Amino acid sequence: MKGGIYLDPEAPQLVQARFAVVNVRRGSRKRFPESCVEVMPDAAAALAAADPAQNQHAAEVMGPSRSSEGIRLYYLVRWLDSPDAG
Predict the structure, then answer these.
(1) pTM
(2) 3-class secondary structure, 43
(3) Per residue in 43-65, pLDDT tens?
């Protein structure tokens, strides 16, 4: 389990750590629907594409994972564009 997400060691390609731009207002939310997440090839690309003034934030996320309602979700690992990102 990583950050509340259960990973299947038999199929690691299903849910993976990825870099992305998440289109949301920053707050306490830790999971985002797939429609709010644009997966990027690496952290540098995510940071370059981010525009915090437009609520587009670079992040490391885990996903996609299917919720009990059938929605594909990404879970926040960390924000890349915050001063305490490391």
Answers:
(1) 0.79
(2) helix
(3) 999 999 999 999 999 999 999 88
